[in-house]
Amino acid sequence: MLPFARVSIIGLGLIGSSVARAVKANMPEVRITGFDADPEVRDRAHDLGFCDDVADTAGTAVIDAGLVILCVPVGAMGLVAEQMAADLPADAIVSDVGSCKQSVAEALAAALPEATIIPAHPVAGTEKSGPDAGFATLFKGRWCILTPPTNAPEAAVAALSTFWQRLGADVEIMDARHHDLVLAITSHLPHLIAYTIVGTADDLGEVTQSEVIKYSAGGFRDFTRIAASDPVMWRDVFLNNKEAVLEMLQRFSEDLTALQRAIRYGKGDDLEALFARTRDIRRSIVEQGQDDDAPDFGRKH
Amino acid sequence: MLPFARVSIIGLGLIGSSVARAVKANMPEVRITGFDADPEVRDRAHDLGFCDDVADTAGTAVIDAGLVILCVPVGAMGLVAEQMAADLPADAIVSDVGSCKQSVAEALAAALPEATIIPAHPVAGTEKSGPDAGFATLFKGRWCILTPPTNAPEAAVAALSTFWQRLGADVEIMDARHHDLVLAITSHLPHLIAYTIVGTADDLGEVTQSEVIKYSAGGFRDFTRIAASDPVMWRDVFLNNKEAVLEMLQRFSEDLTALQRAIRYGKGDDLEALFARTRDIRRSIVEQGQDDDAPDFGRKH
Questions:
Q1: What InterPro entries is this protein classified in (chains A, B) (predicted)?
Q2: A25–chain B Cβ distance below 8 A for any pair
Q3: Do A24 and A136 touch, CB atoms closer than 8 A?
Q4: Is A74 on the interface with B (CB under 8 A)?
Q5: Please, which of A167, A230, B30, B266 could form a disulfide with A129 given CB 3.0 to 4.6 Å?
């Protein structure tokens, strides 16, 4: 039983093209129509062949869709939804893959007041962007969080859950506000910090950029990996999950100030106690399959 | 031509045991004597067989050494040097692998006023600890920074350089103070930040630890990897490179405050400009072989 016969994917970058490839790999009978606002991306998607059809407008892409998934930066969701509003079938489910859920829910509801909207967020990705970067196993063993509004039809939520499970994901249902808080600490703040420290290093006068690059194996290189993620996508995340990000940032800053003070006054016991505690969280992440235990610092031997 | 016929390794954890394994792999004729203050580690080293001899005291470990390498936390260097002082051959070179170089140089000079001391720092590692964690290729293609005092004999510097090159490392000579500044930004600050954010996440009331772990694939898991590094080693690094770490931390905090302000006031252009700039540094790190280009976020597919 296929949850949808025809899926439209709007936005064919890393995530959109991975969804398309994962559908092809796991539900080959499903027809996929893709669209991207960038004509070069459309051409590339056509050449790569992960869609059955590549449409020239968002409207034509959704004409006979059972499920429409918006895979664009969260700041662009409302505009894209408006562009396809006139052509959207009345029984289609509209979903997305954005990293903030309250703002996306509001934008989609405003643009598509009659539609069945079930926002979603597959917690998976890499630091690469574009249609060449996607791959069919990106969602395997990862969590996909659905944040259906309270009045969402149960059958629609069930169908979307089945869809993501067929792509290899585990599905969790969550309140949109809580999602935004959880992701602020597990994803948004780590990215913000990685971007910041790479910028700080770039601005130093006494240490040359060439030195920063040469000796990056001491830890810095892992931050540069995260800080290579798509700039527009991340700009939109911070602007659209402002409240939760600022809250987490404030807590982080307080904790950093406490550590700064421990270093200044030579409080070794305080430092060691924190450093020992953080090991336990790492152990749980490895045990639950959310990362590899290989000693790697991001590097293959 | 072997740079040294007999090498003593004091401290048999990740780095010490990797040095031993790398010597065995690349210079099998060199005799290795190992010592560790922990009797369990000595027993394990004996079983693993990466040393020719495992001594019961630091003194007996160095009796006929041409090169002694201290692979202990930087706060323990002075004590270990005192313990072996009486048995150290007059012509032996004493070196180390610590992540701070000014404090180690001072501690070793105080404990061994007559010895030829050439501090060194191989910029390589993983988040694992202990004698089982080491491997022979850890230093391959990584930089080893030597910080010889101005009066160090040229021949001794040359011999130590050859030793590290034979283990696969590229050698750089640097002033100890400059080393400490470079490593503060490329290694010490990244570790401090990673430890902090993992601690912040652990303290949250609204988001459970189980949620932090489940959704860690969004970026957080890479921080937990770094924050799983040895607590005592890192405590000592921060206490012994206090000045440079506090300086870099101050700059980082200012930059983070600027980003916080950009988010609060919705300055998307400022965010995007920084996020685009940090991509270039990543590109250089990959080009220079200091990290793998595979899109991974620390995870194997």
A1: 6-PGluconate_DH-like_C_sf, NAD(P)-bd_dom_sf, PDH_C, PDH_N, Preph/Arog_dehydrog, Prephen_DH
A2: no
A3: yes
A4: no
A5: A230
A259 touches chain B (CB under 8 A): yes
Q: Establish if B226 touches chain A: CB-CB under 8 angstroms.
A: yes
Q: Which residues, 6+ apart, have CB-to-CB distance to B25 below 8 Å?
A: B136, B137
Contact at CB, B239 and A266, closer than 8 angstroms: yes
Cβ distance of A204 and B185 shorter than 8 Å: yes
Q: Which residue has the higher pLDDT, A216 or B175?
A: B175
**Which chain B residue lies closest to A223 (C-alpha atoms)?**
B190
Listed by number, the residues of chain A in 97-136 with a beta carbon closer than 8 Å to a beta carbon of chain B are: 99, 123-128, 133, 135
Which pLDDT score, from 0 to 100, does residue A190 have? Answer: 94
In CATH terms, B178-287 corresponds, of 1.10.3660.10, 1.10.1370.30, 3.40.50.1820, 2.30.30.240, to 1.10.3660.10
Q: Indicate the SS3 state at residue B25.
A: helix
Measured distance CA(B196)–CA(B202) in Å, rounded: 10
Give me the residue from A203, A234, A252 closest to B200, CB to CB: A252
Among A90, A137, A138, A98, which residue's Cα sits nearest to residue A121?
A: A98
From chain B, the residues in CB contact with A256 under 8 A are 192-193, 196, 249, 253
Phi and psi dihedrals of A119, rounded to 5? -65, 150
Indicate the domain borders of chain B.
6-174, 178-287
| More confident site: B108 or A204 | B108
